[in-house]
Amino acid sequence: MINCKSIPTLDQFITVMGKNNSKQPSQRDRKRLEHQRKKERIQELQKRVEEYDLNADEQISQFSDLPITDETLKGLKDSGFVNLTGIQKKAIPAALKGSDVMATAKTGSGKTLAFLVPTIESLIRNEVSEYDGLVALIVSPTRELSIQIFEVLTSIGKYNSFSAGLVTGGKDVKFEKERISRMNILVGTPGRLSQHFNESVGLETSNLKVLVLDEADRCLDMGFKKQVDNIIGHLPPTRQTLLYSATFSQSVRDLARLSLADPMKIGVSSDDIISETPESLDQYYAIIPLHEKLDMLWSFIKSHLKSKILVFFSSSKQVQFTYETFRTLQPGIPLMKLYGRHKQTSRLETTYKFSKAQHACLFATDIVARGLDFPAIDWVIQVDCPEDAATYVHRVGRAARFGRQGKSLLMLLPSEEEGMLKRLDSSKIGIKQMNIKEKSKKTIRPQLQSLCFKEPQIKNLGQRAFISYFKSVHIQKDKEIFKVNELSAEKYAHSLGLPGAPNIKIKGEGSNKEKKNASRKLLALSKADEDGEIHEQKEDKVKTKYDRMFERKNQTVLSDHYLKLTGDNAKDDDEDFMSIKRQDHDIKETELPELSAPVSKRQYKKAHSKKASLKSKGNPSKFKFDDEGNPHAIYELEDEEDFKKMGDAKSQIESFVNKETQVMNEADVQDKLTAKEKRQEKKLKRKEFERLMREKGYGSAEEDDDSGNVVYTTGGDADLDRDMEAFADSSEDERPKKKPRFASKADNSNKDDRFLEVEEPQTIEDLEALSSKLLEG
């Protein structure tokens, strides 16, 4: 007998049933017992989590020491994660207990696992299935970082049965909407996640348990504050929130205050920035003038061809120009580029190639500075000065990750040296100066000038790089470091290969990050003329880089000679008599019509719609003018009185028919006379041609059977005019030879009978006739 009070395990049940030899357990019994067994494991795990001491972080060193499931441990071990880092020892146990976490740590310390492991464990303890919908949401600032988080998630969670999805910009929104409702964990960027929360019907958030905000400061700095607020507004208040940020400015603290409830702070101090850099990182700086930076970068790459180098610029235009020029000059190392306004497929491909490459050089913007883990980077080169110490920390943090060795070099202008070193020193960042020998420098200025002269697109890229650099310096807030007035524009332009410094127009000092990340459709609708006409974005037309290059009006891509011939730069020469010179006339305001703006929607529509404006004026009509120049409609209706004066309708119809009949008869007579004249003219021409042929003896004579007259034919349907003209224009040698039909015996009297004159045979029949004639002779 089985005690009903104590439910046996699956093995015990099989053993008991085997002793009774009655029957095997049914599938329903197996599922029930397996479910009971799973529930017992979760209860045991929950008990371990509750009994775990948060102050015991110094006593643990591996993931196996944490109260997590065997499936997660197996996934971590297969992915190569065994030992715990400092942030993981503190953050994971606190998150497992269900507390909100507000944490920060130095770059490369393993923050990704610090929130992924508690997220997976939360799903397991809540027994989440595919029917529960969205349970965990992870928000990351960039696509590359989101993809990296998703790859780590699928790697360590492959032994669990939850579903996970990745949503980022640049992908098919319709494809994501069809599948997003079935995801338990969602990883994505703020813009795309906010779009799905607003548009995707099946996205349900009532069961959400965990919200992760990774690199929260970066999300806010990139202009995603509205999107993040929208995402949080769609989530239930009863949830666990894990916030990880490198800096804790006032905006991040406000976000934490609104999103977190009594959070456990890990590594958060009163300072706004976390300035710790890896201990295995050697940091250097060099004082280099602006016009020598590209030469210095080229020399550095040429002397480190067996290294993996990451180069930071302040703008994507500089990245494009440097990549295109260096790729043409071929330094001897694989070159790559990565920046924000790049196609999604290209960004993913570049990230994968650089991660797998052993020796390569990647030109990038600050989009790569946060969170991305590129293995074994040897050097991080900062060509342009970072905006603050926090950005510097994140840039150099791409090297020397997880205890590996690495080096960094910061290129500073003489005007930036004092201010930037003061900022780094106040953040307790130790950096040493590197003295560069003059003999090790190599200049590429002649090659760049040659490229800009030969290739218009390279010149255009150089001009855009020049303008974007000056704008990036102008918009910086720390004016003690960034002094745009002390930059040498002409020298910098010559160092890029440009003949001169382009004109720079800076509209405002504000940042355009919010405008950059806003919806393009909304921007298109918001742009309107003074007349109120809305410009819609033309998405159907695909523009190449050459189309975009020549559409720019503020760049002197074409030569000065061409610009002098066209546009506003054209000179008023005396010889230019074909051009119309504009003259300024005195305008009398009293003679101008009164203009008033539309005051209602109906008036506005009528003023801007061609169809509406014609409606009030009637249908358009055509006019014809009489001899006096008076306009008349093409079809005019007579007045009724005038019509009655001319008689009744039957008589008018009869007179009209008679009149038209008379006109047609006269036209028929004229047509017959014209046809008769043409026939007579043709007959005369034919007789004249026959006479000429008879006189000269050309053509072939044939006797007419009916009349007995001799008719001279030229073969085929002859055009008399053409034949007579050809006959008159031809010379004596070109005309056809006379061929008499009958030859007299007197003509052959002088010929020798021993010889036979024949024409050269042309066909087989001619050869047969010649052979038979010779045999008869």
UniProtKB/TrEMBL annotation:
Enzyme nomenclature, EC number: 3.6.4.13
Assigned protein family: Belongs to the DEAD box helicase family.
Helicase ATP-binding domain span: 92-266
Region named Disordered: 20-39, 582-630, 657-760
Pfam families xref list: CTE_SPB4, DEAD, Helicase_C
Record PANTHER family: RNA HELICASE
Gene symbol of the encoding locus: Piso0_000404
Gene Ontology process terms (BP): rRNA processing
Taxonomic lineage of the native organism: Eukaryota, Fungi, Dikarya, Ascomycota, Saccharomycotina
Organism in which the protein naturally occurs: Pichia sorbitophila (strain ATCC MYA-4447 / BCRC 22081 / CBS 7064 / NBRC 10061 / NRRL Y-12695) (Hybrid yeast)
Reactions mediated catalytically: ATP + H2O = ADP + phosphate + H(+)
Protein name: ATP-dependent RNA helicase
Entry's Gene Ontology molecular function annotations: ATP binding; hydrolase activity; RNA binding; RNA helicase activity
Position of the signal peptide: none
